[in-house]
């Protein structure tokens, strides 16, 4: 089987590569294709340890005429995107090899059998799944480098591969599909792969909604149908009709932290877009149901609703269609700034759900269960998951913005200066105002534009139904007053809507004090009444790793979760942890199944929120088959963590982690914060200085436009190191920690014990191993050779590469392996296949960066575009950007 799988992947890579070669030959001639092949051959032989060919590759690239640089970068970028399509297609076709490690991710049926064997009754399995609340939060962080127009073409190419594979008995179909494939690849080649303008937050939201329309709209009912079939086999019953174990939320158009482009007006527009698009999608469902539900047998409840008509189901669906169509027209008019009277519209989930449920119950009551559990059940499942807004929109704002509102307000009212008060004074003021019956904010208050914008956001909240909105997240939260300030603004301006408020703890210090803050908060008189006995807390992965280094941050996140679980249990409050993970290892990324099972026991108790960011949305949810598998992975992992939780870590493992984290943190800080050459080296050797030109997302690359590395967002910080293949943020400090422990008595034994017996530590090492395999210090050294002049900076670069080499040695020693990825050969193969196409892009990028610096940033438009394409191509080849 494995041989066949590998052959399938290789065949599709070859089919796509050959087609691209023909397209380029038609456009630029066979001689240009020969140049591409020569570059690839040098790169491939250079990868086999042939230093002569490495030098020949660099010499060849540097001698290319200027007019060839852009098409060469485009050719390699395009091939890497086609290789990703082949791999994505392969993963969708053979779902069981999702993470390329046999047996590491069980399918749901196997897990249900294991849970039952462990003593869980079939009924408890149904209840656990019915009550499960996994919310996947789609975010538009600037990591998706591929334009939407190209993504659509790539999806169509995937369809062609499916048609070609299924055409053995119908060769003419294969011929047609091959022709369409050639056409699509030609379209992609002749399409500009780099956006000329940054997407707006509304553009980002449209992209998120398109993922739902093109993929999740089909995958969600398929997932529930598969789940129902499993439960019918094991427990003899379906999932309850209104159950939605996996739901979707979004930050697109709601995340205003550090993004001045997300305003109250934008948030309102995105909410209306969701309403419009949901109505449009449901109209298609309802039209199909109206066509199909032509039967006349009905129960008395349906008859009482529609009267004695010949086709009662169609009658009810006609009425519902009128309301849904009116809803779509109303939302469109609102978006266009027009005022219309559409008549009664659908405003809540139940208004759509109840009539469909009436039809379902009627069909079941008259013995037409097979029809009830067909397309009608699929639509009921969609309503349960997507509601009437497609996603719940989260809102995020930095804590200091709320404090600024309070400062202006207290100063205006002559109450003092909120900014000067200590934490106790702030809490006393906020609690008193939360309990007060009178309004606090003057009706015609002349406040600053910044404060007005914050208040306008809460006014948008007031205008919405609660089910349209998710959680209000406070970034850079550090004290109970940060949460109380938002609660007060919601009371004063947010109308009847009371959203969950989640403080986001993201620096090392904030993580260490997170439980203390929540403990103080839950102990405050009056606060619990606002929470409905629930508390959500967001754990930041990106900024904590940037602040402390990956190893220290990972252990701080684990300890914070443990402490938060204990605090909420003490107060009798239900805790939901919200994991702010990114796509890369340096930002908490990695296979979802392993990540969830490596969390502290009790922290995943049927409830989980997690961000899905940028290009990872496309990789996990961009196609129905892949989305189906992704949902199954999440359901499996959360069910397993709930019913079969991992063991408590042994006390001596905790001691080991405390020591490892301390050494790793000191080593990381010693370089990033304390070495005066580090920031100049970072800016000299990486493309950080030109990242701002790559129009990836709506958010600026920096929180502030002045300052050093500390002002950079975590995404561009990691993007820059990934581009030169040093991947520094995800490993710096780990080598010193592991090396020191291996040198001490018993170190090797205890690290291997933790590796095999503790999921948290084992998963950390797996992620580190994968990252080391993707990194390449020889490529990083070439960037340095080309771009760095100062001897002191070169010396620092050599020290960093030496540290990397030592880390690779100690990781292999702990894993008891001769080489990286011995046990995951398909990941190794995926990296090896891509390297001959990524290597030329690295060489070209270094060359273009140097030319750009020599010209003080004034290189030609074609060379500037070529530089952008190298970034997009390297990101595509490594399959993560930030």
TrEMBL record:
It comes from the Bacteria. Its cofactor is Mg(2+). InterPro entries: PEP_COase, PEP_COase_bac/pln-type, PEP_COase_Lys_AS, PEPCASE_His_AS, Pyrv/PenolPyrv_kinase-like_dom. PROSITE patterns: PEPCASE_1, PEPCASE_2. The active site is at 141, 546. It is an enzyme of class 4 (lyase). Its EC number is 4.1.1.31. The keyword Nucleotide-binding does not apply. It catalyses: oxaloacetate + phosphate = phosphoenolpyruvate + hydrogencarbonate. One of its GO terms (biological process) is carbon fixation. Keywords: Carbon dioxide fixation, Lyase, Magnesium, Pyruvate. GO terms for cellular component: cytosol. GO terms for molecular function: magnesium ion binding; phosphoenolpyruvate carboxylase activity. Belongs to the PEPCase type 1 family. NCBIfam families: PRK00009.1. PANTHER family: PHOSPHOENOLPYRUVATE CARBOXYLASE. Homotetramer. Forms oxaloacetate, a four-carbon dicarboxylic acid source for the tricarboxylic acid cycle. This is Phosphoenolpyruvate carboxylase.
